[in-house]
Amino acid sequence: MSRVPLIFSPLTCLPKLPANRLRLSLYNPHLMETPRLSGTLKITAPCASRTGSGLLAAWILTAAVLSCAASATAQQDFFNNWPPGASPQEVGERVAAHFITQPHQGSTIFYGEVAAWYGALTFAQATSDTGLRDQLVRRFDPLLPGGSETTLIGQRRHVDDEIFGIVPLEIAIQTKDPKYLAYGKQNADRQWENPQPDGLSAETRYWIDDMYMLTILQLQAYRATGEKKYLDRDANQMVAYLEKLQQPNGLFYHAPDVPFFWGRGDGWVAAGMAEILRDLPANHPQRDRILRSYKSMMAALLRYQGKDGMWRQLIDHDEAWPESSSSAMFTFAMISGVKNGWLDAAKYGPAARQAWIAVAGYIDQNSDVTSVCEGTNKKNDLAYYLQRRRRTGDYHGQAPVLWAATALLRDDRPARN
To answer: How far does CA 401 lie from the centroid of its chain?
Structure first.
């Protein structure tokens, strides 16, 4: 959990207190309501030593005891007390229920639908909603071998098709049903059947989208099986992409030959790093490298966040329109950082809160996310990115809203940095 600064009010030994107790009062100036935390601390040194080491020891001990309470209060203030229509519980329920009834978008189950399915499942888990989970499983069952919709499953050895495996893996994690585990695991294993000489997947192409599409599948296989090989593949793949694509300002070009900071492309990166950091142990050799890049990216995003709480279709172009899917992805990554202690809560908590409220405002009366950039291939052409069409209800936008709602609601892993 993130530590937040505490300020000490003058400490005094009050005459009415026993000689070996001190009355202390602490407050955190960064909290919106600056609540005070106070209490009585028993120390072994008598009050007469308050001008020496006894008082210093009391200060240090009290800070250690109460800073955790202040941190929890900070998170409560940033991620509670939502305006009408913006609570993650309400938003998540609306978008997840809508997903159940939405048709497939396209001739195959494309990665956007997969990401939304995964998001709805994680939301169901975070809210202990077994009814929602069971509906999501029933929606998936026609895609099992022998089912009526198997022709909708993409068969290419390509990140956009292989990511399909994260849905049965998430179902396996939640239900412990081995048939879903085997079904999803085959995608993860196939991705590394013929690795490159450097050990990376044969599906490596150095598009920033892959930093989620490829890595989330291996991460889900690790989460479902506990086999370290999947986590190591994941971390090595992520670091290879970081070394090649991250720019000095912390952001990422769409591809090495396309020097534009496309919003959703960078959103996939932010989400991918946030996901893997939740599972990488503190002693993993790649953790520090990934965490360093994550923090650099979050600092850049903080600089480019609009006054409306959103990010633009091209992140560093003020003339570009506010884009909802990338903004939701960045919101998810930032919330994850604050709740896990990777980011300073006082600095990033208000930004994450503002972003979530802004994104929630882009959900219409039908529970469709509006102003979602259409599918975008790489192209070295500024006008191409600025003129991309805006869509409503596209799974590219529904998915990260569900991720962010989940991140706000779940009890996340303790900080590992």
So the answer is: 11
Sign of CA dihedral 303, 304, 306, 311: negative
- Beta carbons within 10 angstroms of residue 204's beta carbon: 17
The correct answer on CATH 3.30.70.920 for the domain covering 79-409 is no
138, two tokens: 């029933």
> Tell me: the pLDDT tens digits for 248-298?
999 999 988 999 999 999 999 999 999 999 999 999 999 999 999 999 999
Cβ-proximal residues to 288 (8 Å cutoff; 6+ apart), any chain: none
Domain extent listing, the chain:
7-73, 79-409
| pLDDT tens digits, 178-199 | 999 999 999 999 999 999 999 9
What is the C-alpha to C-alpha distance for residues 414 and 391, in angstroms, rounded to an integer? 37
Helix pair angle (111-126, 210-225), 10° resolution: 40
Distance of CA 240 to the CA centre of its chain: 21
How far, in Å, CA of 53 to CA of 37, rounded?
23
Question: What's 379's DSSP letter?
Answer: -
Are the beta carbons of 208 and 254 closer than 8 angstroms?
Answer: yes
Q: Model pTM?
A: 0.82
Tell me phi and psi for residue 255, to 5 degrees: -155, 165
Any idea what the Cα angle at residue 96 is, between residues 392 and 124, rounded to 5°? 155
